[in-house]
Write a sequence for this structure.
C-alpha cells in the first residue's frame, strides 16, 4: 500500500527558506539540509510512457519507471553510460525491459526533459516528535539548449502510513489557510512545455471535428493541413533514423493525403491537383523500399523462430541490414532534396489559398461536406462490395491487392469524416472493415516478404554460410506461402461480414445521396 501524496504550487518568487518559515508558523516541523537533485525524463515521440500514466526517470546511475507525481519507483535498473536513444533491446535484461518492451514496442525512448531541483525536506511532527507528514519544497530548473529556466516552485505533501488524519489536517491547512492550490501536472511536464515541446508526446492521428454544413473545400483544407503537420512532424525523425515508426507515420499521412486528393478531387482545380498528386505519389514511392525492409527486419525474429535446429539465417539478416542502409541513404537524399522541400512548402501554400480560389472548375468546392463525403463513402463501399463479390478461388492475387487498396480509401474517409455521422454507424462499420483489411493485409504482406526473400537468393548464396542460409530461406518462403494461403482461405468469411445485407442497408441509409 502506497502512502498518499499530492503536489501543491507555491507562489512565484517564494524561496524555499521563506516557504519553510511560513510552514513553521503554522505547523510543528523540523527542517533538514537542502540538497540538489538532477533527473532526466525519457519517453517516446508519441508519449507512450505519459499515456500509460507513468514517468521514466534517469537519475544518473539508475533508470526507473515511476509514478509521475511522486516519482516513487515501480521498477528500475542500473545502467552504464547514458545514450540519446534507447530501443527496448538496449535496456538491461530484467524487469524494467520486460515492463517497457510491450509498452513502447518498436518506438525509441529519448530524453524529453532535464530538471535540476533544489529540494528542502521538511517533516511535520506530532506531540511525541514522530514524523506524521513529509513535506518537500522543490525549486526546479528546466535545463536545455536555451539554458536554465526556473519553473514554478512546488510543495510535495507525502503521507505516512497510519497517519491519514494528520495528512488530511495538514493538507486542509495548506489549501485553506495558506491558499495553496494543487499542481495539475508533474514538474517534468512543466519542463517539456518550457522547452516548447508537446506535453504527452506528438500524435500522428488525423481525426478532426467538422460541421456538416462546412464547405467541402474548407473541410478538405482542415484535414489535409493536419496531415501536412503529421508529415512535417515525422520528417526529422525519419531522416535521423530514430525508430521505424517515424517513417511509418509519415507514409500513412502521405497515403491519407493522396486518398483525400483522389476522393475529393472536385474541390480542387484540376491542373494544380495533378501536379501535387504526382508529387505525393513520388514521395510514397521513394519511401517504400525502406519501409518494406523495416517490416522484414521487425518481423525477422518471429519469422525465423520456428526454423529447425541448425538452420542459420544470419547471412540473410546481414544482407537485409546492408540493403536497408543502402536504401535509406537513397531515401534520405530524396527527402532532403529541394524537390521534396518544394513539394511540401508549395502544398501548404496551396491549401492556404484554396477556399478563396475561383470555383469555376471546382464543382464540389462550396457544397456541404456532409453531402460530398457521404457520396464518396457510399460509392467506395459499393465499389468494394462489387470487387469482393467478383473474387473467387481462381482470381489472381492482384484482385485482392486492389480490394485492399480500395479498403484503405474507405477507412480513411470514415476516419476523416467520422464527426459528421453517428458513432453507432461508423464504429461497427470500421470494425468489419478492419477485419477485412487484416486478412487482405496479411495476404499481401506475406507475398511481399516471400518475393523479397526469393530476390535475395543469389546474393545470400555467395556469402559465408550462404548455402545453409538458402535452405533456411526455402523453409521461410514455404511458411510465408502457407500463411498467405491461410489468409486467402479466411477472405470469404471476412468479406461476407463486411458486405452483409444489414450493413449495406445501414450504409445506404446513412451515406447515400
Amino acid at each position: 500500500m502506497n502512502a498518499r501524496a499530492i503536489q501543491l504550487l507555491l507562489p512565484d518568487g517564494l524561496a524555499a527558506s521563506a516557504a519553510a518559515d511560513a510552514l513553521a508558523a503554522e505547523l510543528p516541523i523540523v527542517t533538514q539540509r537542502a540538497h540538489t537533485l538532477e533527473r532526466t525524463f525519457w519517453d517516446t515521440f508519441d508519449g507512450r510512457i505519459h499515456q500509460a500514466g507513468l514517468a521514466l526517470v534517469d537519475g544518473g546511475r539508475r533508470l526507473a519507471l515511476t509514478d509521475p507525481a511522486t516519482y516513487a519507483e515501480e521498477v528500475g535498473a542500473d545502467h552504464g553510460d547514458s545514450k540519446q536513444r534507447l530501443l527496448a533491446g538496449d535496456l538491461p535484461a530484467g524487469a524494467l525491459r520486460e515492463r517497457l518492451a510491450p509498452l513502447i514496442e518498436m518506438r525509441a525512448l529519448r530524453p524529453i526533459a532535464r530538471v535540476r531541483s533544489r529540494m528542502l525536506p521538511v517533516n511535520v511532527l506530532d506531540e511525541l516528535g514522530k514524523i506524521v507528514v513529509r513535506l518537500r519544497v522543490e525549486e526546479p530548473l528546466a535545463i536545455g539548449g536555451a539554458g536554465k529556466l526556473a519553473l514554478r516552485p512546488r510543495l510535495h505533501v507525502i503521507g505516512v502510513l497510519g497517519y491519514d488524519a494528520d495528512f488530511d489536517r495538514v493538507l486542509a491547512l495548506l489549501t485553506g489557510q495558506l491558499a495553496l492550490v494543487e499542481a495539475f501536472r508533474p514538474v517534468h511536464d512543466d519542463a517539456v512545455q518550457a522547452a516548447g515541446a508537446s506535453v504527452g508526446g506528438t500524435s500522428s492521428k488525423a481525426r478532426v471535428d467538422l460541421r456538416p454544413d462546412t464547405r467541402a473545400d474548407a473541410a478538405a483544407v482542415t484535414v489535409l493541413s493536419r496531415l501536412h503537420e503529421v508529415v512535417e512532424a515525422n520528417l526529422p525523425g525519419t531522416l535521423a533514423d530514430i525508430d521505424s515508426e517515424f517513417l511509418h507515420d509519415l507514409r500513412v499521412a502521405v497515403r491519407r493525403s493522396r486518398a483525400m486528393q483522389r476522393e475529393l478531387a472536385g474541390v480542387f482545380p484540376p491542373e494544380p491537383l495533378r501536379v501535387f498528386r504526382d508529387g505525393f505519389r513520388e514521395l510514397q514511392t521513394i519511401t517504400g523500399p525502406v519501409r518494406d525492409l523495416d517490416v522484414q527486419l521487425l518481423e525477422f525474429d518471429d519469422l525465423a523462430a520456428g526454423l529447425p535446429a541448425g538452420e542459420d539465417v544470419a547471412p540473410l539478416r546481414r544482407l537485409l541490414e546492408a540493403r536497408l542502409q543502402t536504401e535509406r541513404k537513397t531515401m534520405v537524399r530524396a527527402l532532403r532534396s529541394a524537390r521534396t522541400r518544394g513539394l511540401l512548402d508549395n502544398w501548404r501554400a496551396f491549401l492556404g489559398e484554396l477556399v478563396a480560389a475561383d470555383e469555376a472548375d471546382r464543382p464540389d468546392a462550396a457544397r456541404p461536406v456532409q453531402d460530398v463525403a457521404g457520396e464518396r463513402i457510399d460509392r467506395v463501399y459499393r465499389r468494394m462490395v462489387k470487387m469482393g463479390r467478383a473474387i473467387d478461388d481462381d482470381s489472381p492475387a492482384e484482385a485482392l491487392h486492389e480490394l485492399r487498396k480500395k479498403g484503405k480509401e474507405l477507412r480513411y474517409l470514415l476516419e476523416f469524416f467520422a464527426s459528421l455521422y453517428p458513432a453507432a454507424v461508423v464504429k461497427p462499420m470500421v470494425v468489419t472493415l478492419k477485419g477485412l483489411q487484416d486478412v487482405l493485409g496479411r495476404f499481401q504482406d506475406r507475398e511481399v516478404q516471400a518475393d523479397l526473400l526469393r530476390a535475395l537468393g543469389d546474393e545470400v548464396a555467395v556469402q559465408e554460410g550462404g548455402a545453409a542460409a538458402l535452405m533456411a530461406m526455402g523453409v521461410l518462403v514455404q511458411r510465408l506461402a502457407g500463411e498467405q494461403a491461410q489468409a486467402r482461405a479466411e477472405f470469404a468469411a471476412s468479406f461476407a461480414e463486411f458486405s452483409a445485407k444489414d450493413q449495406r442497408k445501414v450504409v445506404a441509409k446513412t451515406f447515400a445521396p
